[in-house]
Design a protein that fits this description.
The complex is a heterodimer of chains A (113) and B (117).
Chain A (H helix, E strand, L loop, with lengths): L2 E3 L4 E5 L4 E3 L2 E3 L5 E7 L5 E7 L5 E3 L5 E5 L4 E6 L8 E9 L4 E4 L3 E6 L1
Parallel strand pairs in A: 2-12
Antiparallel strand pairs in A: 1-4, 3-9, 5-6, 5-10, 7-8, 8-9, 10-11, 10-12
Chain B lengths: L3 E4 L2 E4 L5 E7 L6 E7 L5 E8 L5 E2 L8 E7 L2 E6 L8 E7 L10 E2 L3 E5 L1
Parallel strand pairs in B: 2-11
Antiparallel strand pairs in B: 1-3, 3-8, 4-5, 4-9, 5-6, 7-8, 9-10, 9-11
The chains are: A mainly beta (113), B mainly beta (117).
């Protein structure tokens, strides 16, 4: 069975600081990996995705993530955080015949001015 | 492209009544749609996989008779919460996809907030 672990429940950073959100997955075959962001009371927005190829993927809003197969990780990074980045971030893995998505528990990002 | 809508965006119903939530793919055909539930400050949990023209596949612990799913066309799936109770109050999100051809992404609707009083 596939699973996703986001070790950090809550992270606080200062505006302008760099950010890294951790994500580890478990899946027996080649995973399809995603990062989503959710603001309070809102739906999900896709930040970036990895299917194959270059292991460093660029997303929207200046985010990037690196797929490391040896570490089963897909960490999300941003060099300089903006106050508007405060939200909940979910990592997800997809696979199987129906490509079911399994989500991590999420990391809540707080940005201090 | 690849837009998914949900209706209604929010609904309040009384305990014991039934509520239907619609999920539509607006600009593509979706043979597979998914229904998720999200409780406050929690992650999304997959409830069921809906395949056009066949019965839905429910995740372990999800009551089939309580959460009725119908996927009668390639652009519409519905979730009916029957005999709703306050504990069914939640944020329900649907998704559709993947589109195939190397695209493994699911496209999410904006969600429906259900409050049962």
């Amino acid at each position: 069975a596939q699973s996703v672990t986001q070790p950090d429940i809550h992270i606080t950073v200062s505006e302008g600081a760099s950010l890294e959100l951790r994500c580890n997955y478990s899946y027996g075959a080649t995973p399809y990996l995603f990062w989503y962001v959710q603001s309070p009371g809102q739906g999900l927005q896709l930040l970036l995705k990895y299917f194959s190829g270059d292991t460093l993927v660029q997303g929207i809003k200046g985010f990037e993530a690196e797929f490391k197969r040896s570490q089963s990780s897909f960490n999300l990074r941003k060099p300089s955080v903006h106050w508007s980045d405060a939200a909940e971030y979910f990592c997800a893995v997809s696979g199987g015949s129906n490509y079911k998505l399994t989500f991590g528990k999420g990391t809540l990002l707080t940005v201090n001015p | 492209g690849a837009v998914v809508s949900q209706h209604p965006s929010w609904v309040i119903c009384k305990s014991g009544t039934s509520v239907k939530i619609e999920c539509r793919s607006l600009d593509f055909q979706a043979t597979t749609m998914f229904w998720y539930r999200q409780f406050p400050k929690q992650s999304l949990m997959l409830m069921a996989t809906s395949n056009e023209g066949s019965k839905a596949t429910y995740e372990q612990g999800v009551e089939k008779d309580k959460f009725l799913i119908n996927h009668a066309s390639l652009t519409l799936s519905t979730l009916t919460v029957t005999s709703a109770h306050p504990e069914d109050s939640s944020f329900y999100i649907c998704s559709a996809g993947p589109l195939g051809g190397g695209n493994y992404e699911q496209y999410f609707g904006p969600g429906t907030r259900l409050t049962v009083t």
